[in-house]
TrEMBL record:
Taxon lineage: Eukaryota, Fungi, Dikarya, Basidiomycota, Ustilaginomycotina
Coiled-coil positions: none
PROSITE patterns, sorted: FAD_FR (PS51384)
Residue span(s) of domain FAD-binding FR-type: 380-485
Protein known as: FAD-binding FR-type domain-containing protein
UniProt key word Lyase: no
Major subcellular location class: membrane
One Pfam family in the UniProt entry: FAD_binding_8
Keywords, sorted A to Z: Electron transport, Ion transport, Membrane, Oxidoreductase, Transmembrane, Transmembrane helix, Transport
GO biological process: defense response; monoatomic ion transport; superoxide anion generation
Subcellular compartments: Membrane
Biological source species: Tilletia indica
GO terms, molecular function: superoxide-generating NAD(P)H oxidase activity
């Protein structure tokens, strides 16, 4: 099973860039050679910039330096110079091992410019595109891509992203228009009413007719319960894109405000004023209406209730503007509490039956009751404290981990999101965050803390309390999101930008836990309900996974190479590519050992590796056991995981999970290569076949200079005997630098899956991140689907974007 997709190869360094690299190391544009000490000094300088706070996988971390005898950077450097002055290099190695001063190495090892240029060419470093023209640079961006495609494809891409919303909005507008015309025409044709009340009643009733369904949709779109229910139905989801409910709510609210204002103008400046004139007395008597002054009209139940409602509505609208939300999100949320008295006033607004039977109460009964019950439930949840811990991952990311107060398994599903409240920051604010992982009684979310006042305050709170102190939180949810449809597709592409990858990481964590830990096939046992809890008892099923015997020279204590929460770590050992001594451990072994070793505390003291315990198990306990479900055929499910991050340190957020999945993928590929299966066997049990997971990470930050770019690529590729992970990212897979060519990635995927493998069916393309990237993916989905149709191939690419709020 391959661990990375076939990606387009960027052009290598040009001769000018290699020469610039040489000059940067030499410190002079006229130098004819560089010394080993200059090369090593530049490497150390760049390495300190790339990893100012070293982690365990970095070459200058104390634990790795001790493991490698303090020679990690030098070993890395000397491994690059295999073809330059071999005798001098050997002398340098001898001098280095003997501990001679650095000046001795300077004299022993010099590299000429021509030799250095030839050697760097062999490194195959991708060009940082420092010398590209403006047109070439623009061509690589998503916005430029959209500019150069034809208008027809732009419209198709927009329809793929916003089509469901547009279709549903058309139905909503039709209902609003129909109700408005019905009410307006009714009073337009009523000559006695028009003569008594004037033009104002027509305007007021037209606005009121359109206002009724608008209020219904506005309140319904506020209910996260209702949105979650809609996501359970595939048929309904085809017509109502619940992923855009927040944007839909804003649109309905603006429409409501306009219609309510027109309704108020029609009464206050129209029929109230017109009917209160003395010359209208005969006309009012003719339609059997009482004679009132302007003040008496306003003092009626419809008058004062409508006036109070419109004032509350405007207060809510003004305090919901982006400027107010940025200034104080708490003011925005508190102002929305005015909707409850506003709903009550609207329900009594037409109870006097001045012109017709009451109608508004019937439209507001269901959504109003739903919203009230949901808010009461949220209020109740806000007083149910849950202990959680905050860990700062970097300057803009915080990881929050909570455990179930009753030590029970959470009933949350992969891809859902929660509303989070931290009373120490605000008692009234609930903010939505995607669930990153949910394993047993532990739940984890990753929060970007540079996007608002509340998240900035959360970062400050994490600095204040530290990772060892519990903070009290409240959680409401879970609520549905597009990532829940991950198991609907046997072939899928996941594209995430920065923290936007968390919904899909949750899906991968769920896949790992249920497919390997519990022996459950998530595709075959897809949950119909997003609220359905996981089974309390694991299914008895054996599953062959690798077991690697450590060589005698291996360290006795495995080294954790990345961030990770102890109770979310996988109970499986990491693999190396060159191991051929593989034992088979069944899932029953894993579950038995897991039970004996189950982590009981969230303290840092529990971070000892599960692998150490499993390694210490006597060999005879594992010998003689035979797996009953060996993976021995080509993978029928494929997931391409594409993650864009600005900085290499961001990859540490989920490096443990990605490394574990990479290990499993490598083992599956090796097993399939050694023992392929016939097509007949493949067709018999497709549900039991392994998942072909391909991890691709892109670091998009531009290097400050050519030396930084070259060394970061080399460090990312470097693996040593003591560590099989990247010396830059801590991942087992290599990363790419720069923005991905999404068009080429999608085309290569089509060629691999459709043309080569012969797959037929639906392919899901999941995305969360910058909208411009989403439009590129949407356009490619439409184009590849059209290409398949033109080739008479039954393949459809479905674009699903992650939006919640």
């Amino acid at each position: 099973m391959a661990t990375s997709s076939r990606l387009p190869r960027p052009p290598p360094l040009t001769d000018e860039e290699i020469l610039s690299f040489f000059h940067d190391i030499a410190g002079s544009k006229t130098a004819s050679h560089i010394t080993y000490s200059l090369l090593e000094a530049k490497l150390r300088q760049v390495h300190d910039v790339l990893a100012p706070n070293p982690k365990k996988h970095h070459l200058h971390h104390p634990s790795r330096a001790e493991l490698e005898g303090g020679a990690g950077l030098r070993d890395f450097l000397l491994s690059l110079l295999s073809g330059i002055n071999n005798d001098d290099k050997e002398a340098a190695e001898r001098i280095s091992s003997e501990g001679e001063p650095l000046r001795t190495i300077n004299a022993a090892f010099q590299i000429s410019r021509d030799d250095f240029l030839n050697e760097v060419r062999k490194w195959d470093i991708p060009s940082p595109d420092q010398r590209r023209s403006a047109a070439q640079a623009a061509k690589a961006s998503a916005r430029a891509y959209l500019k150069r495609i034809p208008l027809r494809r732009k419209v198709a891409a927009y329809w793929s992203v916003s089509g469901p919303t547009c279709l549903f909005m058309a139905l909503v507008i039709a209902l609003q228009t129909g109700m408005g015309i019905w009410q307006g025409v009714t009073y337009l044709k009523d000559q006695p009413i028009r003569k008594a009340l004037g033009w104002g009643v027509i305007l007021a009733k037209f606005a009121a007719g359109a206002l009724l369904p608008t209020l219904f949709f506005m309140l319904t779109s506020m209910s996260r319960w209702f949105i979650t229910i809609l996501r359970r139905s595939y048929f309904v989801s085809r017509f109502i894109n619940a992923d855009f409910h927040q944007d839909f709510h804003v649109r309905m609210a603006i429409t409501c405000l306009v219609l309510a204002t027109l309704h108020a103008i029609g009464h206050l400046a129209g029929d109230f004023l017109y009917a209160s004139r003395p010359e209208r007395v005969d006309a009012l008597i003719a339609v059997d209406m009482p004679i009132r002054t302007y003040r008496n009209y306003v003092a009626t139940i419809p008058g004062w209730s409508g006036l109070a409602s419109i004032i509350m509505f405007w207060i809510i609208a003004l305090l919901a503007t982006p400027a107010v939300r940025r200034w104080s999100y708490e003011v925005f949320q508190i102002s929305h509490l005015l909707m409850f008295p506003m709903i009550c006033l609207l329900c009594v607004h037409d109870t006097k039956k001045l012109l017709q039977a009451p109608m508004i109460g019937y439209w507001l009964a269901f959504p109003g009751l739903l919203v009230v019950l949901e808010r009461l439930h949220r209020l109740y949840r806000s007083f149910r404290a849950i202990s959680a811990r905050l860990q700062i991952l970097d300057h803009e990311t915080v990881c929050l981990t909570a455990r179930h107060p009753r030590k029970k398994a959470w009933t949350y599903s992969a891809g859902q999101y929660i509303l989070l409240q931290v009373p120490r920051l605000s008692r009234f604010q609930f903010h939505p965050f995607t669930i990153s992982a949910c394993v047993h009684d532990c739940l984890q979310v990753h929060i970007k803390t540079n996007s608002g006042n509340w998240t900035s305050a959360l970062h400050a709170l994490a600095l204040e309390v530290g990772p060892e102190v519990d903070v009290q939180i409240a959680i409401d949810g879970p609520f549905g999101a597009p990532a829940q449809r991950f198991y609907d597709y046997r072939k899928s592409i996941i594209v995430g930008s920065g923290i936007g990858i968390t919904p899909f990481v949750a899906a991968l964590t769920d896949l790992e836990q249920k497919a390997l830990q519990r022996g459950i096939n998530p595709w075959r046992n897809r949950r119909r309900s997003s609220m359905q809890s996981a089974p309390s008892r694991p299914t008895s099923m054996s599953f062959e996974i690798p077991w690697v015997r450590l060589p005698q020279s291996a360290p006795s204590r495995p080294t954790s190479m990345s961030f990770g929460t102890p109770w979310l770590r996988s109970p499986r050992p990491s693999l190396t590519a060159d191991d051929h001594n593989i034992e088979v451990v069944s899932m029953s072994d894993i579950r038995e050992t897991r039970t004996r070793y189950r982590v009981q505390s969230c303290d840092q003291s529990t971070k000892s590796s599960f692998e150490e315990y499993l390694i210490s198990m006597p060999l005879q306990q594992r010998e003689g056991r035979k797996a009953t479900a060996t993976i021995e055929t080509i993978a029928q499910r494929r997931v391409d995981f594409v993650w864009l991050v600005r900085d290499a340190t961001h990859l540490l957020w989920f490096s443990d999970l990605l490394n574990r999945l990479t290990d499993i993928a490598r083992f599956h590929r090796k097993q399939l290569e050694e023992k392929p299966i016939s097509a007949a066997r493949t067709s018999e049990s497709p549900a039991e076949l392994p998942v072909d997971l391909r991890v691709n990470t892109f670091i998009t930050a531009t290097a400050k200079n050519i030396s930084t770019h070259v060394f970061r690529v080399l460090l990312d590729r470097y693996r040593s005997k003591s560590s099989s992970v990247s010396a830059l990212t801590g991942l087992r897979t290599e990363s790419s630098f720069g923005r991905p060519d999404l068009e080429a990635i999608m085309c290569n995927y089509y060629e691999d899956v459709v043309s080569t493998e012969g797959y037929r069916g639906d392919i899901g393309v999941f995305f969360c991140g910058t909208p411009s990237i989403g439009r590129v993916l949407a356009d490619q989905c439409a184009q590849l689907t059209a290409q398949a149709r033109s080739e008479d191939i039954d393949v459809r690419f479905h674009f699903l974007t992650e939006v919640f709020g």
